[in-house]
Input
Amino acid sequence: MVFREADIKCGVDAKRRVAAWAKAVIQGHGKTAGEICVVSCSDEYLLGINVEHLDHDYYTDIITFDYTEGDVVSGDLLISFDRVRENAKDVGVGFQEELKRVIIHGCLHLVGFGDKTDAEAKKMREEENKALNMFHVEQ
Output
């Protein structure tokens, strides 16, 4: 996992630990972690990507571009740090905690989980919670 900046500073704490954790989560789903890039960006930058590539005219916290081939999971996770900060306030958690949730949400998309239906969204949230618990146990 690599961390890049689009138009906003990448504020991921403990990058090596986060990368190792994401890799372990991916492996726990029977896949191999390939090239995964976390790209930090602003609301406006990600809105532009959302409109241009997905024809969606609204803010989102993450857009996942999936380059997975077979069991090797690869992709770009474009994350609005503005949206993560706002979401963290809304749900009453710290920024780093919400950021880990969003990063692992993108990784779970790459291993095959969806979130379009209520049932898929519920399963996605369960998997996110399992992964977050795993991160905290490893610390």
Observations:
- The chain has a mean pLDDT of 94.
- Residues 81 and 91 are 15 Å apart (CA to CA).
